[in-house]
Amino acid sequence: MVGLSQSQVYFSFATGAVTALAPGAFAGGLVGKQTFTGFPQKAEVVTSYSTGSVTGVSGATLGGVLGRHDNGSVTTSYSIGALSGASTIGGVIGSDNPTSTGRSALYWDLQTSGVTDASQGAGDIPNDSGITGLSDAQLKSGLPSGFKANAWAENPSINNGYPYLIANPPP
Predict the structure, then answer these.
(1) Which of 74, 118, 139, 140 suits a disulfide with 133, CB 3.0-4.6 Å?
(2) What sign does the CA torsion over 39, 43, 47, 48 have?
């Protein structure tokens, strides 16, 4: 898990629980806050996932993958961890910059996350583009759209049947 990312997070996963302890804090299952400061850095979260729970206090902002997405890109990633306790919660992104771009093929599990409203992929922007809620069965029944079979695989006996990274399989 990364607190602040101004760089790249590729082919990664996180399984641990995350807690935001202060109002105004951002917490995500994979990255707390992603921001891009300009060349030569490029803030990206690509082909990654998180499975751990994310909890917070009132006034905190939580997302299954990212707590805050200022800019940069976030693609082909998903979250299944439970999200609870904060004022703003999104299935994938807690708080999204409304002018940011670079979101595609992002998913969260509508059942395991507790975020059952399909419009709540980002906690502060209803129906934010590029983010889709899937049922538990949908997430386990074949790779989601945009997930490439040369990077991802599914097997009922690996990762509890959820997609996993071929080059970085879970223990």
Answers:
(1) 118
(2) positive
On the 0-12 / 13-18 / 19+ scale of CB atoms within 10 A, 97 is: middle
Helix, coil or strand: residue 1: coil
Q: What is the pLDDT of residues 126-163, one digit of tens each?
A: 999 999 999 999 999 999 999 999 999 999 999 999 99
CB-CB contact of 57 with 26 (8 Å): no
119/48 Cα distance (integer angstroms): 22
Contact 34, 5 (CB under 8 A): yes
* Domain boundaries along the sequence of the chain: 2-137
